[in-house]
Structure formats: structure tokens, C-alpha cells
Amino acid sequence: MAAFERQVQANQVGHDFIAAFNLRDADALVALAHPDVEFRPTMLVGSRRVYKGHEGLRTWVADLIASGAEHQVRVREVRTLGDERLVVLTEVLLGGEVISPSAMIATLRDGKVVEAHAYLSDETTLAELDLLR
Length: 133
Known about the structure:
By secondary structure, the chain is α+β, with helices and mostly antiparallel strands. The chain has one domain: Nuclear Transport Factor 2, Chain: A (Roll). The protein is built from 4 helices and 6 strands; from the N terminus they run ααββαββββα. The chain has a 6-stranded mixed β-sheet with strand order 2-1-6-5-4-3. A hairpin with a 4-residue loop joins β3 (72-80) and β4 (85-94). α1 (3-23) runs antiparallel to α2 (26-32) and α2 runs antiparallel to α3. The model has no long low-confidence stretch (mean pLDDT 92).
């Protein structure tokens, strides 16, 4: 796949994942995820360190809804990190106000998210930790 096509695919997956999160739509998240997905949310939105598989994503959304958390996430930029990795640079919003920078680094397999880790951090810190390579 050409670099431009990878960027287009990453951009779509990144935006769709965040939109599904904002809607608390487990079916949409599952549609974007590989069956072997491992998702590590921030402690802001998950009671477990890792959620595995499609059922894990469904559990995560149920945990999120049960928590009553009302925050949303806004995408600032999606960027590829090699052939199958991407970073989604975002901001956490509460009541329409930015409360924190955030990001998700994901690995794709067959065009689906197979691993993702969410961070309450900015791009500079993630780069200093060598996570954006």
C-alpha cells in the first residue's frame, strides 16, 4: 500500500474510532477492531488496564457508560508511524472546554485496530518518551 493510501486509511480509522468513543457506540468500535484487539484506555475511561477482543471493547464501553463520564474527545491530527501504526493526537473536552491533551497510538492489522494505547499526554512528551517512532 502506498504511503498516501496508508495515511488516508489511518486518518479514517482514527477519526472513526474517536467518533465511536464520543457516541459510546460499542458496535462501531467493534467494527473498527480486529478480533484480537488489545485496548489500553487512560484511567479516565476504564477500570481495567487492558480490554481484550471484541467483548473487551464492549465491556469497556459499558464501564464507560456506567461511570457517567461525559467527556468527549476532539481529533487534532492523525499521523502514520510506519506501515501499520498511527497516532491520533486529540484533546479531552468537558462541557465544550479543553481539559487535557490526549493521544492514542494504534497498530492496524488488515485495516483494523489490533492494539491501541490511550494517553493523557501531549505530543512533545510522547516524542520524548520515544513512543512516536
